[in-house]
């Protein structure tokens, strides 16, 4: 009993360092996907470094819900592969310790990852998403050019179509502006100007486009008459509150909802639209993703236990392959479930069911000292490929000899 407790503590201790390293590494990789947007905000739009760091902080929970299961699986794999490379597993086998002796530390470590992931998905993700949304509103109120894109028709403002060919972030000067204003139901105005400038009123959430040396074409829809007005400067106001829907009670996004809010929405909502199905998928995902830590941890146990010194990279590559398969199944379930064509419960839990059954099968075969089916398939393919290469080489040599004979 004491020896098994020593083994459990030793294995858990060995898993901690790879887990921290993998968590930091994978989180850094995920955060690098936003590096171009962050650089653009700092260089072109003069957003403060503190605001950028806050956006990155609020985005971490969303990435953590995927990074933690990945780090759990890779940490277990690396620990077992390292123990196999140092012949520690062989020594434990000689002492009568089977693979089932590794179950308690692996299950305990994976369960801790599940609890941590559950806290992230249930509490941290809604907090992060809500914080990012509030910060974005504050930044947009002070920097309208963040929401405008060059050479793109912007219809974020109700009844207004806005096109800007060029934006100078430092001076807020704009070039080649086209505006179609249909807010007046009786007339449509088209404003064209070669240059202008942006002004903001953050306290009122208003934007003013001051245009220079342009033309206004006003079309009366009833009489079908056109009036053309030339101007030296013209102020065009845009209301950010209406554009962002802040002038009316805001409907919470599904990513901001707590579990109680999700349950209430799913119970009372009668319109079975895409928002309903996406909310239902997110609800079940908050439980299926934490369980993935336990499933992937159990899958990593036989993979790492069976890998020998000469196939260490093979075992790690196989583990990452199964991790990729898990998220492919999860993504496919989400794609079918958000349209209502596939039940949300099955779509979110199917990856855990498939990988869990595979993990139990591998664990049973490893406990019986049987090779894994995928491992045998890989060995057969490798042997067949090795047989094929010498044959091709031999055939090529024979062909070259016959050509030489014909030549002489």
Describe the fold and architecture.
The protein is of the alpha+beta class. The protein has helices spanning about 1-30, 35-45, 50-85, 90-95, 105-140, 240-245, 260-270, 275-305, 310-335, 345-365, 375-405; strands spanning about 155, 160-170, 175-180, 185-200, 205-220, 225-240. The protein has two domains: about 1-140 and about 260-365, no CATH class; about 150-245, no CATH class. It has eleven helices and six strands. The radius of gyration is 31 Å and the shape is elongated. Strand 5 (about 205-220) and strand 6 (about 225-240) form a beta hairpin.
Keywords:
six-stranded antiparallel beta sheet, 2 domains, alpha+beta
Gist of the model:
The chain has 408 residues and is α+β, with helices and mostly antiparallel strands. It is built from eleven helices and six strands.
């Amino acid at each position: 009993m004491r020896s098994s407790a020593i083994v459990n503590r030793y294995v858990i201790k060995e898993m901690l360092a790879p887990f921290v390293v993998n968590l930091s590494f994978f989180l850094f990789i995920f955060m690098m996907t936003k590096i171009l947007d962050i650089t653009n905000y700092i260089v072109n739009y003069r957003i403060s470094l503190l605001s950028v760091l806050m956006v990155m902080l609020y985005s971490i929970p969303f990435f953590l819900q995927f990074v933690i299961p990945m780090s759990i699986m890779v940490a277990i794999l690396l620990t077992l592969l390292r123990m196999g490379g140092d012949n520690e597993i062989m020594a434990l086998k000689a002492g009568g310790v089977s693979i089932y002796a590794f179950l308690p530390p692996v299950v305990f470590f994976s369960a801790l990852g599940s609890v941590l992931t559950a806290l992230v998905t249930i509490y941290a993700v809604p907090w992060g998403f809500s914080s990012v949304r509030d910060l974005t509103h504050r930044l947009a109120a002070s920097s309208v050019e963040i929401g405008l894109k060059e050479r793109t028709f912007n219809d974020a403002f109700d009844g207004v179509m806005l096109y800007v060919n060029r934006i100078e972030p430092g001076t807020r000067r704009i070039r080649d502006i086209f505006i179609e204003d249909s807010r007046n139901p009786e007339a449509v105005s088209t404003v064209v100007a070669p240059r202008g400038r942006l002004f903001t009123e953050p306290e009122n959430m208003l934007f003013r486009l001051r245009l220079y040396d342009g033309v206004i074409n006003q079309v009366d829809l009833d009489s079908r008459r056109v009036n053309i007005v030339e101007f030296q400067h013209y102020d065009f106001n845009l209301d950010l509150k209406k554009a962002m829907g802040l002038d009316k009670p805001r409907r919470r996004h599904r990513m901001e909802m707590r579990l109680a809010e999700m349950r209430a929405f799913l119970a009372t909502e009668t319109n079975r639209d895409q928002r309903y199905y996406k909310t239902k998928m997110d609800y079940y995902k908050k439980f299926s993703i934490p369980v993935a830590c336990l499933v992937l941890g159990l899958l990593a146990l036989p993979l790492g236990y069976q890998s020998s010194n000469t196939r260490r990279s093979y075992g790690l590559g196989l583990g990452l392959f199964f991790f990729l398969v898990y998220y492919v199944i999860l993504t496919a379930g989400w794609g079918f479930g958000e349209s209502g064509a596939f039940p949300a419960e099955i779509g979110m839990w199917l990856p855990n069911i498939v990988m869990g059954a595979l993990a139990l099968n591998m664990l049973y075969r490893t406990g019986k000292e049987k090779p894994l089916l995928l491992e045998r398939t890989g060995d057969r393919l490798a042997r067949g490929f090795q047989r094929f290469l010498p044959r091709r080489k031999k055939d090529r040599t024979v062909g070259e000899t016959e050509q030489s004979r014909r030549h002489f």
